[in-house]
Structures are given as structure tokens and as C-alpha cells.
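Lab notebook, entry 288. We have the chain sequence and a SMILES string for flavin-adenine dinucleotide, and the next step in the workflow is to get a structural model of the bound complex before anyone spends time on docking refinements. Request logged below.

Task: model protein plus flavin-adenine dinucleotide, output C-alpha cells.
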Amino acid sequence: MAGSSEKASKRRALIVGGSMSGLLAALLLRRAGWDVDVFERVESELAGRGAGIVAQPDLIETLRRLGIDPTALGVEITTRKILDASGRLVGQFDCPQVLTAWERVYRVLRDAFPRERYHRGRGVSGFVQTENSVVAHFGDGDAAEAELLVGADGLRSTIRQQCLPELAPLYVGYVAWRALIPEAAFAPAIHRELFNYMTFCLPPGEQCLGYPVAGPDNDLRPGHRRYNVVWYRPADENGELQHLLTDAGGTTHTISIPPPLIRREAIAQMRARSTISKRRAWRSAGSR
Ligand SMILES: Cc1cc2nc3c(=O)[nH]c(=O)nc-3n(C[C@H](O)[C@H](O)[C@H](O)COP(=O)(O)OP(=O)(O)OC[C@H]3O[C@@H](n4cnc5c(N)ncnc54)[C@H](O)[C@@H]3O)c2cc1C
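Result returned:
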């Protein structure tokens, strides 16, 4: 047993990508006795890749397996609510959950992995498979050899592109508008009805959901938290999608656009549409 774990500890793994998947793979491999290095293309510390995340039981269980305390990950809720497009409550059921944030999970994983084995600003440009090993090549001309290479390099993965060049991401036909609202900005009546719940609103062909998350610096004190809102809406790939991804300077971004660059006109249109949907729902509820 001791012999096999000694042998296992000599095996080396290279992880390409130092975000959620990369860190989880790295920590699990280390725990299994591997010698692991993570290579992340981005030079600075990763941040701001999303807002709220539901801490699913799998994540909590994996953190426990890694010896990481999953408590204080975020805000605990007990109930889900369903609203119609006019905001009227049409359903409610028990569903205890912990709601956390991308930054929080990333920080917990990053802190659990040795700093000296996490290499920032190291982009992998490709790999070569040999009979007994794999060699990763970096953009700066450097190379590293190991028994295992894990491609955890995201949606536009260089590693997947090399293994499966015929695969490309497909647009699913909708965009997500995302927002974080400070708890203090809620009017008391809305706070009572909404804040402590995961709430879904389901207009035809769309989905809007919201739930409480920690405030800045993982602040979990009542009054200092935030409400995470995501509104999924259809957008034609060659029309509205391009329009939404184009900033005031005329640059069209891929996949997502940083919030400060979204054109005011696009925000105004989104707000107008939400009001129109609500008015329509009120009218049809009134005619029933
Ligand atoms: C704008 C946006 C908002 C999101 N909001 C949410 C949210 O609110 N809640 C939620 O649950 N999820 C959200 N997501 C999805 C979430 O980001 C992903 O589920 C999660 O980050 C996936 O983790 P990952 O490690 O697989 O990939 P990624 O987070 O994409 O990480 C891949 C990493 O690999 C690095 N990399 C890429 N190529 C190379 C290379 N060649 N060499 C070395 N490193 C490389 C990248 O720099 C990156 O750090 C959002 C995604 C986006 C784009």
C-alpha cells in the first residue's frame, strides 16, 4: 500500500486552466497522491467571472472530500417561489439550498492549493503525446512534461480544439442579463416578499430568476448582502445578439460584454421590454 502510494506520488499532472474546473481537478489529483502544477493563461488573479452560484450538493460533497469546510460558503435559503409575468405568486415549495458566488468558491479552492504550484500568465499553446508521457508547450516557447495533462481551459479550450477540432460551441439562442442588487436598495415590502427566496418568473419563452448572495467581501450580515438576478431572453444570433454585444465604440465582443461597456440604449430597450411584458401580463390577467 505504502509502495503504491509512493509510486503514485511520483506521477506528475499538468492542469491547463486555473479556474473552477482546473482547481478542482488539481486538488482532487493532489489528494490522490499526484504531483500537480496548474498553468493559468491570465497574468492577474482571476476575478469577477459571474455572480451567484447555487452550491449544489455535489460541490459541497467534493469540498468535504477535499477537507475544505463548506460552511460559510454563502446564504442559506429554505424556499422557492414561482411568479407569473405580472409578479403574482403561482407556486411555492421547500427547497433548502446554499447560494454562493463564483468569487467565493474560487477563493476557497485557490487558498487550498499551494501558491507555488499555481503558475499565472502561463498560456499553453498545445501538447504532444509521446509513448509514456505528454509534453505541454507554452506560448513563450517553454515546455513541461508529465504523465497526465488535464484540459480545464474553458469554453474556447485550446486542448479540446487540438483533440477534437471538429467541435465548436453552438449558440443556444438566448442571452442572459445579469444584475446584483444591494440588499439595502430593497423597499421593505419587496424585501419581505422576495429577498429570502429563490424566485423564478416564467414569462412565455423566457426565464427570470433571483436569489440572495453575499455582499462585497463575502459579507453575510443581513442588510449587507445582495440579490442576484438573471433574466434569460431569446435573441436572434445575427441580429439582436450582435447588437447587444457591440459597445459604444463599435467593437463587437464575443460571448459576453463587460457591464460598463453595454450601450445605454441597449439597457433602456431591455428595461422598456420588461415593462411591456409586465403590462401585457397585467392586461391578460385582467381579461381572464
Ligand atoms: C460572463 C459570464 C458570467 C457567468 N456567470 C455565472 C454565474 O453567475 N454563475 C455560474 O455558476 N456560472 C457562471 N458562469 C459560468 C462560469 O464562469 C463557469 O461555469 C465556470 O467558470 C467554468 O469553470 P471552468 O474552470 O470550466 O472554465 P473557465 O472559468 O472558463 O476557466 C478556464 C480557464 O482556463 C484559462 N485558459 C484558457 N485557455 C488557456 C490556455 N491555453 N492555457 C492556460 N490557461 C488557459 C482561462 O484563462 C480560464 O481562467 C458565467 C460565465 C460567463 C462567461
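Notes for the group: The longest helix spans residues 264-287. Worth checking against the assay data. The helical segments are 2-9, 20-31, 57-65, 102-112, 158-163, 188-195, 240-245, 264-287.
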